[in-house]
């Protein structure tokens, strides 16, 4: 098994294999990616590991998927933790590429193979991301207008705000069109699953319906993690996961614990036993996403009943 690591940057790709010190650099463009694939073909890698870099890895990832090699895209925090555990405290592109190659070689039995989302999910994710940007800009512009005194500047700011709101409305319409063919009964089975939540979960958590309850809770970052050692029983807490999904799920759960009978009873039961607000709400978030995951997974077996 040959472990290969690729450090991805905006302009360059650094390729390393675990059994060699040499690291080869390619440009992060079509020509550089083609040359990198050619080098990898000669090696016949057993596992390829790279980091998520905010989209700079997307063209390379798409090209690698065409080869059929096992590929994993990991969170940069995981790669950095592995490097520190290996005694490597310094950080450069070359060091990172070597560390990824070593991690691929050592950890491949436990690495999750990357499964690309469907084309419609990728398109939906782009629209959801843009909507988030526009909503943030609307909030900022609304706050700024309150401090504008000059009428001329006020008119310009109001025109800008109106344009942003119009763009948000167009995005909402397009997002609804993209989601409509995929809204099954399971997606309407919990109060709080409105159009924005549905679109966000479909695009940002495409694994829904294919995971166990433990896996989906950890992936979102709402699983209570143990902190025990010897006789010490530490306080359980959540850590990691997909922050964007967790933000959407938080707002959806605030609605669900008021209007969804099952989640309301669960949440109020925790509060009655003295659990703090945030602890009870995170537990309700976990139940929310676990329930939705199970209903999507079991939907083919029978009808989903609204509760």
From TrEMBL:
<dbReference type="InterPro" id="IPR002525">
    <property type="entry name" value="Transp_IS110-like_N"/>
</dbReference>
<dbReference type="Pfam" id="PF01548">
    <property type="entry name" value="DEDD_Tnp_IS110"/>
</dbReference>
<dbReference type="Pfam" id="PF02371">
    <property type="entry name" value="Transposase_20"/>
</dbReference>
<feature type="domain" description="Transposase IS110-like N-terminal">
    <location>
        <begin position="4"/>
        <end position="147"/>
    </location>
</feature>
<feature type="domain" description="Transposase IS116/IS110/IS902 C-terminal">
    <location>
        <begin position="188"/>
        <end position="268"/>
    </location>
</feature>
<protein>
    <submittedName>
        <fullName>Transposase</fullName>
    </submittedName>
</protein>
<dbReference type="InterPro" id="IPR047650">
    <property type="entry name" value="Transpos_IS110"/>
</dbReference>
<dbReference type="InterPro" id="IPR003346">
    <property type="entry name" value="Transposase_20"/>
</dbReference>
